[in-house]
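User: Can you predict the 3D structure for this chain?
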Amino acid sequence: MESTRTGGRILVDNLVAQGCDRIFTVPGESFLAVLDALHDTPAIDVVTCRQEGGVTFMACADGTLTHRPGVAFVTRGPGATNASIGVHVAMQDSQPMILFIGDIDCGTRDREAFQEVDFQAMFAPLAKWAARIDDARRIPEYVARAYAVAMNGRPGPVVLALPEDMLLDQVAAQDRARVEPVAQPADADALDHLRDLLVTAERPLAIIGGAGWDEAASGAFAVWATQAGVPVAAAFRRQDAVPNDCPAYAGNLGYGPNPALLERVRHADLLLVVGARLGEATTDGYTLVTPDHPGQRLVHVHPDPAELHRTYATDLAICAGMAEFAEALLPIDGPVTPSIAEANAAYHDWTTVRPRDGVALDLGPCVAAMHARLPADTIICNGAGNFSGWWHRYWRYAGPGTQLAPTAGAMGYGVPAAVAAALRRPGRSVVAVAGDGDFLMNGQELATAVQHGADLLVILVDNGTYGTIRMHQEREFPGRPSATRLANPDFAALARAFGGWAETVETTAQFAPALERAMAERGVRLLHCKTDVEQITPATTLSAIARR
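Assistant: Here is the predicted structure, written as structure tokens:
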């Protein structure tokens, strides 16, 4: 129905029409009309954050969990530049998100007005679509298109700039109906070709990842892989694409993978890549699976035709959604020689924790203690750093929506993602795993968690250094560390200052009892785990790296 409203009111009404029930924001004077409309919109929960990077990280994580765009609002200039990190992550992670930026009014454009930025130029290489809404009557059109672009094909971020005066205009506008993602079934002829390839394969392997893995897609693919005898490897930080207790699961690719799995990938004669882009981290710099992959046939399934044939020579390209493709796989037989038992046994052996001698706080047994104590469907959220390797190796993810981790490798993601997850999935166990450098990039969002009543646990791994960079320094310039040492606060005291519960853990024996006490509390809880930088990864030490 058309009615005369402010642009801000029209925008909020159309977000409600699209099913938006939560936005993340740092408020700004450039979109006061939107904030005013939100005052009278109980259908939308407004989460007030402490820095715009936290805003877009939360929106990205929310979109990952809901499969509809997470929605962020920030102000122009500094707000937008701070928020850009989350746009980059949403793009590289293929997650739906919409970032609205309050902008200067139309009459002062191109004068380098206060905090003026050309947002279309700035975000064009970072987002799927970047635009500015100059006419309030077209807000419903732009919002509906933003949802469609963010969800369809390869999901990703959309950025819309909102001139301040446009949001104040009183106009009549026709609201748009809710947009749903377009179903993408697999082509029947392509499935017949895939059946022929599978029948003749001797050493097939599936690599799964990307976006769109919900319970239906995950469940169907796990059933097919098990009955077809095709081992399944997860792409970098997409270990939750199928439950890790699937009998066909062979482990994860990325940083610090199982050497046995790498050999299995190298010797596969057929690679069935479903959803994953085969990016740099998954392929070890495009060397594990090379763009021309001689001696291997490659089937690439992806929801976006632009990704097919983009980097890799593809023997069979199938444009399809994950759920539609997985369902279509069920009647297709696997190869004559199933090989999942050996691959799955190698995965279990690699992920069995073996305590290290002479280590005061050994993270492997700590992860095992967490797995024994926490529910299987716990949502693990982490940013970037070597600390994450222990959870990538030893944690067993229960299925879609239990791993929130940036494939873009952005630091500071874990705490904001955990806040978003705790608000989106109340009653679920949510854990943020962060390094000391990682935590201090967005640890201020603990204030957001406390303010909004989020229930989450933070495992803070403190080794007093930017560990990943120190590791590379020892590999390239042994004995010459530079710019990587960190002087840290008392993180437990900091968490208590935010209003949370916290303890410091310095030995392996202290961890499980401290975890038990943390689980007896509610709200924000933090375990400050002090580790030795010498134990740089689950598989090696700094000294061993320097000697190579």
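The chain has a mean pLDDT of 96. The CA atoms of residues 505 and 529 lie 5 Å apart.
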